[in-house]
Amino acid sequence: MPAENRPAPAANPVLAGFHPDPSICRVGDDYYLACSSFEYFPGVPLFHSRDLVHWRQIGNVLDRPEQLRLPASMPSSGGIYAPTLRHHDGRFWLIVTNAREGGGNLIVTATDPAGPWSDPIPAPGVHGIDPDLAWDEGGTCWCTVAGVAQVRIDPSTGKTYGEAHRLWSGGPGAKAPEAPHLYRIGDYWYLLIAEGGTERGHGVSIARGRTPAGPFEPCPANPVLTHRGTDHPIQNTGHADLVQGPDGSWWMVFLGVRPRGGTPGWHVLGRETFLAPVTWEDGWPVVGEVTLDLSALPWPLSPAPAEERRDDFRLSELGPAWISVRDRPAELCTTKERPGWLTLRARGDSLDAPDVVFTGRRQQHLACGTRTLIDPSEGRGGLAVRLDERHHYAIEASATEVRVIARVGSLRTVVAEHSVAAGPLVLAVTITDPPPPHAPCTGPDVVSLGIEQPDGTFTQLAALDGRYLSTEVAGGFTGRVIGMYAAAGTVHFDWFDYEPLEV
């Protein structure tokens, strides 16, 4: 069976790559999951599953400019933080923070999770990030935010009632109590939160009370999930949500990272979504072992064929997995100008510019190969691995040459240059394990950039240490995105290949 048609394995993470802050809801036999998107447009990727393991992206919640405005002045890792997705009274509700100047919390609704979603309803009385919505038996809606504080809200208008009041905020002195989710399970209301910060100290704790407003008593076994201080391959575990599986058992989705290399370990894909079993003892959840293999789940799995390796840009609109930096004006990014090609028109003059015209997809595999056929005869552009404006590698083509550019913090350098004949050419980036011997300072991977000759041979122009495109170096909340950009004039791309490689 060709690799692009082979079903995805039942493995953790269930959503690989930059898919953090998962929020999940179940409607009948269907599961829906939303994630943070930060400075990328469209915002809030939304997924569907029948088995909690195999997920298909069905859209993006904030996919219209009138729903999502992310100005060039907003720094990377700003923007859309930590949605909560819920289904109530026949509608899907999503509340999320736009962490930009003049942003705040907003609510959108839909009858079909694939969209369209409504225009945003501002919630100016909700102060704080990571908002949650929960309805009690009387129909009152409660909004709980990081901190942890709570206020009554009418989600159909965004109006709040009364003053926000403080709830339980995790272990004494715990850093960053956040990501609250409130549930009625059995005789109790449970308040699930993250604490310890989203780095190596991340964890999940829980408390319970008789009413949604508390008071709450903490679980004596808190944190119920953390990998701090362990050698587990999945670290930074936290920001969780609870759901029942098809058989009625309980499960937890949460974010984590997979650091690699030497010390301190570098994670490059961003925070990913993982799944773990949950049992109940004495009215408290007990999180089971977090495993990399999920093939033995107690219900039938329903894998779908893997995504096609190549996008030929033959559709009138880009698929939902394609994301751009801050916005995507139709006049600057289109598949309609030259049929079967993606056309990008430059705005910023390089990937360093916050308004660069860039369209990419999340890197979802520890080793992968990407290729694109570019026509740079009317401009200059290329193929890039982007973490943010200050951390990216690119192979850039003009009509007469290609060059490899590395931006690491305040340093920007042209690593290699190579003359080429006029006409379209194939640019390629391959990400692989570092060669042996491995040592305490060995990085997580190697990013090789080059061109592909007409006979299919690859000419490598540079091989760069991947640690400089990691969160541990760059900071922030995102992961790598690989894609195409325009730095001058107009550039056209005939196709884009993304292929997982064996680790």
Automatic annotation (TrEMBL):
Taxonomy, superkingdom: Bacteria
Keyword vocabulary terms for this entry: Glycosidase, Hydrolase
Beta-xylosidase C-terminal Concanavalin A-like domain ranges (all copies): 310-499
Feature type site, description Important for catalytic activity, responsible for pKa modulation of the active site Glu and correct orientation of both the proton donor and substrate: D130
Organism: Streptomyces spinoverrucosus
Pfam families, sorted: GH43_C2 (PF17851), Glyco_hydro_43 (PF04616)
Active site (record annotation): D21 (proton acceptor), E178 (proton donor)
Family under the similarity heading: Belongs to the glycosyl hydrolase 43 family.
Protein name stated in the entry: Glycoside hydrolase 43 family protein
Gene Ontology molecular functions: hydrolase activity, hydrolyzing O-glycosyl compounds
Phylogenetic placement of the source organism: Bacteria, Bacillati, Actinomycetota, Actinomycetes, Kitasatosporales
GO terms, biological process: carbohydrate metabolic process
